[in-house]
Amino acid sequence: MALKDLLAAGTGRLADRITTAGDEAGDRADDVAWRVAKLSDRAAERLGDYAAGASRRVANRLVRLGERVAGR
């Protein structure tokens, strides 16, 4: 086999390895993105729950304040 053929074969194998590594990196990036999105959904849900609870607490305080003012 000529040197040129050996070089071409080696370059082809290297290209295959680079492609495989790129595919694996892409798969891992997709997995990480999915996990981050899932965590973001959970965080948004918790934040919404917290905001709803805070809103209820403020509303209850305003009702009690209104009752006090009306009772006087």
Tertiary shape: rod-shaped
Q: Roughly how many Å is the radius of gyration? A: 31 Å
The main β sheet shows up as: none
Strand/helix succession: H
Number of helices: 1
The residue-averaged pLDDT reads 87
Work out the strand percent: under 5%
> Uncertain spans, ≥5 residues at pLDDT below 50?
none
Oligomer: single chain
Q: What is the number of strand segments?
A: 0
Helix content: over 70%
Helix and strand arrangement:
Blueprint (H helix, E strand, L loop, with lengths): L2 H69 L1
Summary tags:
72 residues; mainly alpha
Please describe what this structure looks like.
This protein is an all-alpha fold and 72 residues long. 96% of the residues lie in helices and 0% in strands. The longest helix is centred in the middle third of the chain and has 69 residues. The radius of gyration is 31 Å and the shape is rod-shaped. 0% of the residues are buried.
Give me a quick take on this structure:
The chain has one helix spanning 3-71.
